[in-house]
Amino acid sequence: xxxxxxxxxxxxxxxxxxxxxxxxxxxxxxxxxxxxxxxxxxxxxxxxxxxxxxxxxxxxxxxxxxxxxxxxxxxxxxxxxxxxxxxxxxxxx
Length: 93
What we know:
By secondary structure, the protein is mainly beta. The protein has strands spanning about 10-15, 25, 30-35, 45-50, 60-70, 75-80, 85-90. The protein is globular and about 30 Å long.
């Protein structure tokens, strides 16, 4: 339990890209989505990570994600903000 790139704090949602085997994890209490490539011990920030909130670079307790390979987007259930966030993979957090 923590907030560094090799730690999660209450992970809720998970999706895997079947082409790259990358895992995408909604990290609820860290207000972010992380990605982990196959066999990686450290992840990369995909979305959020800028504190809890509703601005376009913030998430507020994300608890579910869906990976849409056709549009290269993650759809993030942003629990405390009561909304769904569309995040283009590779966009700045």
